[in-house]
């Protein structure tokens, strides 16, 4: 037997044994060791190639934005199942509800931000992050085009594109100016962290300009007239923060102008904080009156120049102008240009906001999801499916529906159409069986299709759009990550309600927003809160509740400690009036 034939037989005999066994034989052979070693290498290389192939099979998820929705999605996503890439023009997450506090130095900017890379590095896998702005979404080619913006010259191309299997759009919205002339040029905004930092410097500038010798008293008053446009939570909280900053700190360092300061809040509606309970709105208006913050309701701004703001008083039809030193515009949000372009591609050009279904998937797109301020859920109306619901409930095909038949499908109806639950609550109906009653309140044993339509005719009036808040965006991000994590499982084991149009069940339960309450800090260590169960809390104790809730909602212990230390510093030393 030749040496080569012996080696070949030995190689075949060792096929299937672990590499360590082969290596043991290797060293017993003097001349065929290298050949046998090469054979063992080829056997052990197979699992590595298979691993690479599995990695390549991972679906790529591209996430646009690192705000509340995007960060919440990334925190809970099982990245071992996906190839995740994140694109955002900012490499940090900002706790935006505290932006008004940043404008007056109550909280420092770095105390409410967490670097994105600190968040994503905690995951059991790799998430790639690119600091750039998405400038176009190509829905047909499953590709996004991005552009980086750096102050210093960067070697190499600034433009790049990414392909995706799933796209999560969470880029938020921009300030809505309602095309009012002069707003973009002469107003400050409070949407991003940079806005708060710029506003803080501008407030100090107004006091410094008013302190320059040679100015008349009228010129000093103009420089120290702060106008806030918008009576929502952001505008009200900034006005309250600014009042506290002036009365607690600035009057001590600018005593010569302390009697010339004025704050005016302009609201187009009849009341400020009109999305809150009426008791909160009334309390806020009375408190602002005591604090000498002038509230002008029923006024629509027509023009903003660098020296004055022109508005129309709706009740009188008069047009008036008032001089200002600084204007803060906080009147709502609008869709970003990149989202508008995307909407035109998918047939939503006539809508104001990108529409998704109840599972947060963009309508007309199978693999694109949208969260947060950039999108709205287009809740399906129950009357659109009323015939299919009746048919599914009418098991005996009798053409009539009994109370028992209706109860058999009511759980699925409540999950699929949440407006029905709201309707029952608003009408003070204890059970859906109460819908199956005649005008005199007597039970109806059976109802036909027309009677069924009549019973549910007013249900869709309770379908409302969700508010553009951090709370909604965070819940949507957490919901979508759970859906992604259970995607494979739910293909064979659907968890959602039955399909009334079609057969089978939906893979997932639709998104359901759970309102946990909302706060409105009003200054002077007082706040108002709307809590679940129609509870309203107002006063100093509510302010301490606000402190505890906002501290607990921070994304890391680092920002939590920094935030509490900032609050403590403010209580002990006051706010810093340096212009830096």
TrEMBL record:
It catalyses: a quinone + NADH + H(+) = a quinol + NAD(+); a ubiquinone + NADH + H(+) = a ubiquinol + NAD(+). It is a peripheral membrane protein. It is an enzyme of class 1 (oxidoreductase). One of its GO terms (molecular function) is calcium ion binding. Keywords: Calcium, FAD, Flavoprotein, Membrane, Metal-binding, Mitochondrion, Mitochondrion inner membrane, NAD, NADP, Oxidoreductase, Peroxisome, Transit peptide. Residues 381-416 form the EF-hand domain. Its cofactor is FAD. Signal peptide: none annotated. Its main location: mitochondrion. This is NADH:ubiquinone reductase (non-electrogenic). The lineage of its organism: Eukaryota, Viridiplantae, Streptophyta, Embryophyta, Tracheophyta.
């Amino acid at each position: 037997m030749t040496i080569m034939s012996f080696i070949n037989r030995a190689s075949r005999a060792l096929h299937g044994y672990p590499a360590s066994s082969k290596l043991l034989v290797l060293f017993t052979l003097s001349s065929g060791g290298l050949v046998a070693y090469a054979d063992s290498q080829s056997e052990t290389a197979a699992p590595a190639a298979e691993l690479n192939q599995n990695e390549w099979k991972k679906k790529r998820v591209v996430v646009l934005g690192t705000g509340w929705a995007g960060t919440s999605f990334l925190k809970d996503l099982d990245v071992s199942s996906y190839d995740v890439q994140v694109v955002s023009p900012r490499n940090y997450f900002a706790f935006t509800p505290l932006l008004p506090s940043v404008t007056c130095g109550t909280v420092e900017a770095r105390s409410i931000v967490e670097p994105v890379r600190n968040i994503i590095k905690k995951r059991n896998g790799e998430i790639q992050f690119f600091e750039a702005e998405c400038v176009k979404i190509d829905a047909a080619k499953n590709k996004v085009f991005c552009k980086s913006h750096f102050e210093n010259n960067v070697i190499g191309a600034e433009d790049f594109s990414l392909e995706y299997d799933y796209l999560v759009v969470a880029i938020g919205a921009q300030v809505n100016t309602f095309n009012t002339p002069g707003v973009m040029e002469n107003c400050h905004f409070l949407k991003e962290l940079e806005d708060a930092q710029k506003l803080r410097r501008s407030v100090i500038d107004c006091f410094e300009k008013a302190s320059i010798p040679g100015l008349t008293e009228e010129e000093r008053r103009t420089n120290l007239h702060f106008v806030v446009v918008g009576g929502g939570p952001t505008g009200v909280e900034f006005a309250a923060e600014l009042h506290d900053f002036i009365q607690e700190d600035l009057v001590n360092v600018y005593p010569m102008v302390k009697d010339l300061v004025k704050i005016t809040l302009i609201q187009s509606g009849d009341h400020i904080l009109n999305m809150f309970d009426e008791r909160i709105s009334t309390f806020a208006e009375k408190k602002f009156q005591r604090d000498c913050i002038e509230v002008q309701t029923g006024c629509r701004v027509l023009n903003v120049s660098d020296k004055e703001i022109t508005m129309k008083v709706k009740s009188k039809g008069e047009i008036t102008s008032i001089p200002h030193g600084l204007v803060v515009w906080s009147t709502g949000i609008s869709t970003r240009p990149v989202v508008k372009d995307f909407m035109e591609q998918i047939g939503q050009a006539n809508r104001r906001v990108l529409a998704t279904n109840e599972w947060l998937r963009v309508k007309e797109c199978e693999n694109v999801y949208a969260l947060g301020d950039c999108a709205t859920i287009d809740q399906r109306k129950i009357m659109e499916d009323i015939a299919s619901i009746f048919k599914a409930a009418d098991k005996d095909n009798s053409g009539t529906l009994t109370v028992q038949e209706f109860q058999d499908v009511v759980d699925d109806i409540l999950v699929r159409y949440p407006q029905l639950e709201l309707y029952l609550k608003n009408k003070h109906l204890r059970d859906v069986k109460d819908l199956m009653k005649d005008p005199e309140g007597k039970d109806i044993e059976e109802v036909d299709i027309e009677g069924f339509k009549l019973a549910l005719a007013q249900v869709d009036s309770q379908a409302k759009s969700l508010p553009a808040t951090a709370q909604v965006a965070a819940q949507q991000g957490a919901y979508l990550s759970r859906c992604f994590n259970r995607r494979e499982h739910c293909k064979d084991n659907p968890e959602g309600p039955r399909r009334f149009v079609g057969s089978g069940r939906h893979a997932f339960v639709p998104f359901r927003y759970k309102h946990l309450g909302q706060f409105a800090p009003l200054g002077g260590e007082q706040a108002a809160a709307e809590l679940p169960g129609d509870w309203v809390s107002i006063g100093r104790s509510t302010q301490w509740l606000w402190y505890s809730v906002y501290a607990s909602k921070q994304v890391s212990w680092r920002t939590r400690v920094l935030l509490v230390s900032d609050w403590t510093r403010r209580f002990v030393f006051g706010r810093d009036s340096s212009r830096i």
